[in-house]
Specification:
CATH architecture of the largest domain in chain B: Orthogonal Bundle
Shape of chain B: globular
Order of helices and strands of chain B: HHHHHHHHH
CATH topology of the largest domain in chain B: Rna Polymerase Sigma Factor, Chain: A
Largest sheet of chain B: none
Helix content of chain B: over 70%
Number of domains of chain B: 2
Distance between the termini of chain B: 35 Å
Oligomer: heterodimer
Number of helices of chain A: 11
Structural class of chain B: mainly alpha
Distance between the termini of chain A: 57 Å
Number of strands of chain A: 12
Number of helices of chain B: 9
Structural class of chain A: alpha/beta
Strand order of the largest sheet of chain A: 1-5-3-2
Number of domains of chain A: 2
CATH class of the largest domain in chain B: Mainly Alpha
Strand content of chain B: under 5%
Largest interface: A-B, 59 and 61 residues
Largest sheet of chain A: 4 strands, antiparallel
Radius of gyration of chain A: 25 Å
Order of helices and strands of chain A: HHHHHEEEHEHEHEEEEHEEHHE
Number of strands of chain B: 0
Chain lengths: 353, 172
């Protein structure tokens, strides 16, 4: 019994995660900037709740009525602004007042900083009541913000207009809603829309345009079915990004994209067609629409060139994505289809925190 | 024991943050195993403090108060993540933490899973012992209890972790 006890203690000593000094300092610096910004925010909803709970409105009539007057002015100004500008999707303050669809929610605290690291990698990770975007372009933020419910992220061709810096300048964005509640993804996206309008002065609208696309269709009998057709564990259905020469075994359902200077390799087992479409999206400049109606699971080991001109110049032998995909019994056919697009009317570099 | 700063001014709040961010972040990291979650916890706790007046607990013993707050928020984070459906999106996956060894990662995952099933008080003592390396006597002083109580809590927590890890397939 004592031996078991010692073993657990050893596991705790060895495996309880310990933060490094660098991690602690970097996190503290980021949080400090958010707190500095939060101190200068107008009275938040939570603070107002506290105020109402602790003090009678009649004991402090002047500040309360002054706050009410400010709110009323803000409402009137919001309606005025909305009628002056053709805001996206028509979800503005007057909607809330006149009982049309709900007003667009917004974050309580937002911090935006320019990232000058020069690195390429970045990502957006909304979790709980917190939105965190690291080293992302404005295009990525717009893509996340207007990501249609239940749909896929927009391809590059579906975000139209905007200045050049939209693809080159990188930003660090941290935003939060007060309280512990889990913010649903749809609401989080509306909050990011509000933030973009507020801080980047973004004006944009959604419309439908007929654009060139690729239809993914079956040739011959389609992909060869994987030997094991039992559904993989949903937790294993992830995409990982590999590096050449450092590749580990993947669970069923997972796939890995490995990029070399001239080619892309996709490896995975027990994949579905929607998973494959996800993998291929970065390899072509158009939206891929699944027209296969193929529901089985299949294995993929696919290598294709990134740029046929560059590959020819370098003497590489990787086929194009169009040739490579045919090895799986699939084909990309050129077509046109009506697609939702985001049209950027105007945008400015963000205001400082 | 650190002094007990009250938050009657912005400077006091800054002092409170400067003196305790390390404790809050390291505690949260020990429970969640994620730098982003730990940062979320740090931010959540101090944003809440901005929005309210100091509680007596914070004035009396800020270190113990903030440690308990970090444990509570971290456990909430960990438990809610267990319930969430993961969305396999390329952007979201880029922040997956690298692990140097698959076996260690699995063991750590099981350990965090077991810790998330303990009660708040037990996790607080575990973190003070294994993350901050306090002795039983120091923890007892900080939590205003006896050394024996701390020793018993640690013993019970280890036994429960052993049981939970065995149940999840790992033999510690």
């Amino acid at each position: 019994m004592k031996r078991d006890e010692n073993t657990v203690a050893e596991i705790l000593e060895r495996h309880v995660p310990l933060a490094t000094d660098e991690q602690v300092e970097a996190a503290a610096e980021r949080v400090r900037s958010v707190l500095q910004h939060a101190k200068h925010q107008p009275l938040s909803r939570a603070s107002l709740d506290d105020l109402v709970a602790k003090r009678s409105i009649w004991r402090r009539p002047i500040p309360v009525f002054a706050a009410a007057a400010v709110i009323l002015l803000a409402v009137v100004y919001g309606i005025y602004r909305e009628r002056q500008t053709d805001e996206i999707a028509g979800r503005g303050m007057s909607d809330w007042i006149f009982g049309r669809p709900q007003s667009r929610p917004s974050f309580d605290v937002v911090s935006i900083r320019v990232n000058l690291s020069g690195r390429d990698g970045g990502g957006i990770s909304p979790r709980g009541n917190f939105f965190n975007a690291t080293n992302v372009t404005l295009r990525s933020l717009v893509n996340f913000a207007y990501w249609p419910p239940g749909g896929r992220l927009f391809s590059r061709s579906q975000i139209i207009g905007g200045p050049d810096w939209m693809d080159t300048d990188r930003f660090e964005v941290q935003a939060r809603v007060e309280g512990d509640r889990q913010v649903p993804p749809e609401q989080m996206r509306l909050m990011v829309q509000s933030m973009l309008e507020d801080r980047f002065r973004l004006r944009a609208h959604l419309e439908t345009r007929e654009l060139p696309v690729y239809h993914l269709v079956l040739i011959k009998n389609g992909p060869r079915l994987s030997a094991d057709q039992s559904p993989p564990n949903s937790r294993d259905s992830f995409i990982t990004f590999g590096t050449e020469g450092a590749e580990s075994t993947l669970p069923r359902g997972a796939g890995r994209i490995t990029e070399s200077p001239s080619s892309t390799t996709i490896v995975g087992t027990a994949l579905t067609i929607p998973s494959l479409v996800n993998f291929l999206r970065g390899g072509v400049d158009r939206v891929i629409i699944d027209k296969t109606e193929f529901t089985g699971l299949f294995d993929v080991n696919l290598q294709f060139s990134k740029d046929e001109v560059a590959v020819a110049a370098a003497g590489e032998s990787a086929p194009s994505i169009f040739a490579a995909i045919q090895e799986l019994g699939l084909k990309l056919e050129s077509a046109r289809a009506p697609l939702n697009v985001v049209v950027i009317e105007s945008v400015q570099k963000p205001s400082e925190n | 024991m650190l002094p007990s700063p009250t938050r009657e001014s912005s400077t006091d709040f800054d002092d409170l943050f400067r003196q305790h961010y390390d404790l809050v972040y390291r505690t949260a990291y020990g429970i969640t195993g994620s730098s982003e979650d730990a940062e979320d916890v740090l931010q959540t706790i101090f944003l809440r403090l901005l929005g309210r007046e100091d509680s007596p607990g914070l004035k009396k013993n800020p270190r113990a108060y903030l440690c308990r707050a970090a444990v509570n928020v971290s456990l909430n984070t960990l438990r809610s993540k267990r319930r969430q459906v993961q969305i396999a999106d390329v952007n979201a996956l880029r922040d997956t933490a690298p692990t140097k060894d698959a076996g260690d990662a699995d063991l750590r995952h099981r350990l965090l899973d077991a810790i998330s099933q303990l009660n708040t008080g037990a996790v607080e003592i575990l973190m003070l012992r294994y993350v901050h390396n306090y002795s039983d006597a120091e923890i007892a002083r900080m939590l205003c209890t006896t050394r024996g109580t701390i020793a018993v809590s640690l013993y019970r927590s280890r036994a429960r972790i052993k049981k939970l890890m065995r149940a999840s397939g790992e033999k510690p």
